[in-house]
Amino acid sequence: MYVPPLRPPSHDDSYISGEVTIDPSAAIAPGVLLQASPDSRIIIGAGVCIGMGCILHAFEGTLEIEPGANLGAGVLVLGKGKIGANACIGSTATILNASVEPQQVVLPGSLVGDKSRIVVTRPTVVDVDTINETASPASDEATNGDRPPPMNIPPPTPSEPEPTDAASSPPPTSQKVYGQAQLNRMLSTMFPHRQALNRPLQDGQSPSDQP
Protein backbone atom coordinates (compact mmCIF):
# COMPACT_ATOMS: atom_id res chain seq x y z
CA MET A 1 0.00 0.00 0.00
CA TYR A 2 1.21 3.47 -0.85
CA VAL A 3 2.09 5.51 2.24
CA PRO A 4 2.22 9.26 1.59
CA PRO A 5 5.29 11.08 2.87
CA LEU A 6 4.92 12.99 6.11
CA ARG A 7 5.81 16.60 6.39
CA PRO A 8 6.97 18.06 9.68
CA PRO A 9 4.44 20.39 11.29
CA SER A 10 4.90 24.10 10.95
CA HIS A 11 4.68 24.58 14.70
CA ASP A 12 5.99 22.63 17.66
CA ASP A 13 2.87 22.79 19.80
CA SER A 14 0.15 20.15 20.27
CA TYR A 15 -3.55 20.93 20.33
CA ILE A 16 -5.63 19.55 23.20
CA SER A 17 -9.40 20.08 23.51
CA GLY A 18 -12.06 18.61 25.82
CA GLU A 19 -11.59 16.09 28.62
CA VAL A 20 -8.11 14.69 27.98
CA THR A 21 -6.01 12.90 30.61
CA ILE A 22 -2.29 12.47 29.85
CA ASP A 23 0.18 10.58 32.02
CA PRO A 24 3.32 12.60 32.74
CA SER A 25 5.55 9.82 31.35
CA ALA A 26 3.81 9.83 27.95
CA ALA A 27 5.72 11.27 24.97
CA ILE A 28 3.74 13.39 22.53
CA ALA A 29 5.41 14.70 19.38
CA PRO A 30 4.76 18.11 17.85
CA GLY A 31 1.65 18.66 15.75
CA VAL A 32 -0.52 16.11 17.64
CA LEU A 33 -4.26 16.81 17.91
CA LEU A 34 -6.14 15.45 20.95
CA GLN A 35 -9.82 16.34 20.88
CA ALA A 36 -12.66 14.95 23.01
CA SER A 37 -16.24 15.76 22.04
CA PRO A 38 -18.86 16.52 24.71
CA ASP A 39 -19.66 13.49 26.89
CA SER A 40 -16.44 11.84 25.66
CA ARG A 41 -12.88 11.69 26.91
CA ILE A 42 -9.34 10.61 26.02
CA ILE A 43 -7.08 8.70 28.41
CA ILE A 44 -3.37 8.34 27.61
CA GLY A 45 -1.49 5.91 29.85
CA ALA A 46 2.07 5.77 31.08
CA GLY A 47 4.87 5.31 28.58
CA VAL A 48 2.67 5.97 25.54
CA CYS A 49 4.46 7.35 22.48
CA ILE A 50 2.44 9.36 19.96
CA GLY A 51 4.20 10.37 16.74
CA MET A 52 3.98 13.71 15.02
CA GLY A 53 0.86 14.67 13.17
CA CYS A 54 -1.38 12.08 14.94
CA ILE A 55 -5.05 12.93 15.40
CA LEU A 56 -7.07 11.38 18.23
CA HIS A 57 -10.73 12.40 18.21
CA ALA A 58 -13.02 10.80 20.79
CA PHE A 59 -16.79 10.98 20.47
CA GLU A 60 -19.75 9.03 21.88
CA GLY A 61 -17.52 7.35 24.44
CA THR A 62 -14.03 6.91 25.80
CA LEU A 63 -10.87 6.56 23.76
CA GLU A 64 -8.12 4.97 25.85
CA ILE A 65 -4.47 4.44 24.97
CA GLU A 66 -3.11 1.86 27.40
CA PRO A 67 0.44 1.99 28.81
CA GLY A 68 3.31 1.24 26.47
CA ALA A 69 1.36 1.68 23.22
CA ASN A 70 3.09 3.28 20.25
CA LEU A 71 1.35 5.31 17.55
CA GLY A 72 3.36 6.13 14.43
CA ALA A 73 3.33 9.46 12.66
CA GLY A 74 0.12 10.49 10.96
CA VAL A 75 -2.14 7.95 12.74
CA LEU A 76 -5.86 8.81 12.82
CA VAL A 77 -8.04 7.40 15.62
CA LEU A 78 -11.73 8.35 15.60
CA GLY A 79 -14.65 7.42 17.85
CA LYS A 80 -14.41 5.21 20.90
CA GLY A 81 -12.26 2.22 21.61
CA LYS A 82 -9.05 1.09 23.20
CA ILE A 83 -5.47 0.67 22.02
CA GLY A 84 -4.07 -2.24 24.03
CA ALA A 85 -0.90 -2.15 26.07
CA ASN A 86 2.34 -2.34 24.06
CA ALA A 87 0.42 -2.32 20.78
CA CYS A 88 2.15 -0.85 17.75
CA ILE A 89 0.19 1.20 15.20
CA GLY A 90 2.01 1.88 11.94
CA SER A 91 2.23 5.32 10.40
CA THR A 92 -0.77 6.79 8.54
CA ALA A 93 -3.03 3.97 9.82
CA THR A 94 -6.70 4.76 10.44
CA ILE A 95 -8.79 3.27 13.26
CA LEU A 96 -12.55 3.92 13.33
CA ASN A 97 -14.56 2.95 16.43
CA ALA A 98 -12.42 -0.13 16.95
CA SER A 99 -10.11 -1.59 19.55
CA VAL A 100 -6.64 -3.07 19.13
CA GLU A 101 -5.57 -6.01 21.27
CA PRO A 102 -2.49 -5.70 23.51
CA GLN A 103 0.84 -6.31 21.73
CA GLN A 104 -0.89 -6.33 18.35
CA VAL A 105 0.79 -4.79 15.31
CA VAL A 106 -1.16 -2.75 12.74
CA LEU A 107 0.63 -2.29 9.44
CA PRO A 108 1.26 1.22 8.09
CA GLY A 109 -1.56 2.63 5.98
CA SER A 110 -4.08 0.07 7.34
CA LEU A 111 -7.78 0.75 7.81
CA VAL A 112 -9.34 -0.84 10.89
CA GLY A 113 -13.03 -0.78 11.84
CA ASP A 114 -14.52 0.54 8.60
CA LYS A 115 -18.06 -0.85 8.37
CA SER A 116 -19.27 1.43 5.59
CA ARG A 117 -18.18 -1.00 2.89
CA ILE A 118 -20.76 -3.77 2.76
CA VAL A 119 -19.94 -6.73 0.60
CA VAL A 120 -23.05 -7.95 -1.22
CA THR A 121 -23.02 -11.65 -1.95
CA ARG A 122 -25.00 -12.81 -4.94
CA PRO A 123 -26.80 -16.14 -4.87
CA THR A 124 -25.09 -18.77 -6.91
CA VAL A 125 -27.16 -20.09 -9.81
CA VAL A 126 -26.56 -23.76 -10.45
CA ASP A 127 -27.70 -25.53 -13.59
CA VAL A 128 -30.38 -28.16 -13.04
CA ASP A 129 -28.60 -30.61 -15.33
CA THR A 130 -25.47 -30.27 -13.23
CA ILE A 131 -27.46 -31.08 -10.09
CA ASN A 132 -28.99 -34.15 -11.73
CA GLU A 133 -25.59 -35.37 -12.90
CA THR A 134 -24.19 -34.87 -9.44
CA ALA A 135 -27.10 -36.65 -7.77
CA SER A 136 -27.15 -39.61 -10.20
CA PRO A 137 -24.15 -41.42 -8.66
CA ALA A 138 -25.77 -41.17 -5.24
CA SER A 139 -29.05 -42.60 -6.57
CA ASP A 140 -27.17 -45.43 -8.24
CA GLU A 141 -25.44 -46.22 -4.99
CA ALA A 142 -28.78 -46.21 -3.18
CA THR A 143 -30.26 -48.55 -5.81
CA ASN A 144 -27.31 -50.87 -5.55
CA GLY A 145 -27.68 -50.84 -1.79
CA ASP A 146 -31.31 -52.07 -2.06
CA ARG A 147 -30.37 -55.11 -4.09
CA PRO A 148 -30.25 -58.38 -2.15
CA PRO A 149 -26.84 -59.96 -1.81
CA PRO A 150 -26.07 -62.70 -4.34
CA MET A 151 -26.90 -66.25 -3.23
CA ASN A 152 -24.08 -68.67 -2.67
CA ILE A 153 -24.48 -71.32 -5.39
CA PRO A 154 -22.40 -74.46 -4.80
CA PRO A 155 -20.09 -75.40 -7.67
CA PRO A 156 -21.24 -78.31 -9.86
CA THR A 157 -19.89 -81.68 -8.79
CA PRO A 158 -17.98 -83.59 -11.48
CA SER A 159 -19.87 -86.59 -12.87
CA GLU A 160 -18.40 -90.01 -12.09
CA PRO A 161 -17.37 -92.13 -15.09
CA GLU A 162 -19.75 -94.96 -15.86
CA PRO A 163 -18.30 -98.47 -15.26
CA THR A 164 -17.67 -100.36 -18.45
CA ASP A 165 -18.83 -103.93 -18.85
CA ALA A 166 -15.96 -106.36 -19.09
CA ALA A 167 -18.03 -108.70 -21.24
CA SER A 168 -18.72 -106.06 -23.86
CA SER A 169 -15.04 -105.25 -24.26
CA PRO A 170 -13.32 -107.21 -27.06
CA PRO A 171 -10.99 -110.04 -25.96
CA PRO A 172 -7.33 -109.29 -26.11
CA THR A 173 -5.72 -110.47 -29.29
CA SER A 174 -3.03 -113.10 -28.96
CA GLN A 175 0.36 -112.00 -30.10
CA LYS A 176 1.71 -114.00 -33.02
CA VAL A 177 5.12 -115.67 -32.47
CA TYR A 178 7.47 -115.51 -35.42
CA GLY A 179 8.45 -119.04 -36.75
CA GLN A 180 5.80 -120.91 -34.81
CA ALA A 181 4.31 -122.56 -37.95
CA GLN A 182 7.69 -123.85 -39.11
CA LEU A 183 8.41 -125.23 -35.65
CA ASN A 184 5.10 -127.08 -35.58
CA ARG A 185 5.71 -128.68 -38.97
CA MET A 186 9.17 -129.82 -37.96
CA LEU A 187 7.92 -131.35 -34.72
CA SER A 188 5.07 -133.12 -36.48
CA THR A 189 7.55 -134.63 -38.94
CA MET A 190 9.92 -135.80 -36.22
CA PHE A 191 7.20 -136.80 -33.80
CA PRO A 192 4.10 -137.67 -35.76
CA HIS A 193 2.22 -138.77 -32.63
CA ARG A 194 3.01 -135.56 -30.69
CA GLN A 195 0.40 -132.84 -30.52
CA ALA A 196 1.35 -129.67 -32.25
CA LEU A 197 2.32 -126.69 -30.08
CA ASN A 198 -0.48 -124.42 -29.11
CA ARG A 199 -3.11 -126.66 -30.77
CA PRO A 200 -6.42 -126.19 -29.03
CA LEU A 201 -7.85 -129.28 -27.36
CA GLN A 202 -11.40 -130.40 -27.95
CA ASP A 203 -13.79 -130.32 -25.06
CA GLY A 204 -13.57 -133.32 -22.72
CA GLN A 205 -10.30 -134.68 -24.20
CA SER A 206 -6.83 -134.87 -22.78
CA PRO A 207 -3.54 -134.87 -24.70
CA SER A 208 -3.27 -138.66 -24.32
CA ASP A 209 -6.66 -139.12 -26.04
CA GLN A 210 -5.49 -137.33 -29.21
CA PRO A 211 -4.46 -139.64 -32.13
From TrEMBL:
<feature type="compositionally biased region" description="Pro residues">
    <location>
        <begin position="147"/>
        <end position="161"/>
    </location>
</feature>
<dbReference type="GO" id="GO:0031470">
    <property type="term" value="C:carboxysome"/>
</dbReference>
<dbReference type="InterPro" id="IPR011004">
    <property type="entry name" value="Trimer_LpxA-like_sf"/>
</dbReference>
<dbReference type="GO" id="GO:0043886">
    <property type="term" value="F:structural constituent of carboxysome shell"/>
</dbReference>
<feature type="compositionally biased region" description="Polar residues">
    <location>
        <begin position="175"/>
        <end position="187"/>
    </location>
</feature>
<protein>
    <recommendedName>
        <fullName>Transferase</fullName>
    </recommendedName>
</protein>
<feature type="region of interest" description="Disordered">
    <location>
        <begin position="130"/>
        <end position="211"/>
    </location>
</feature>
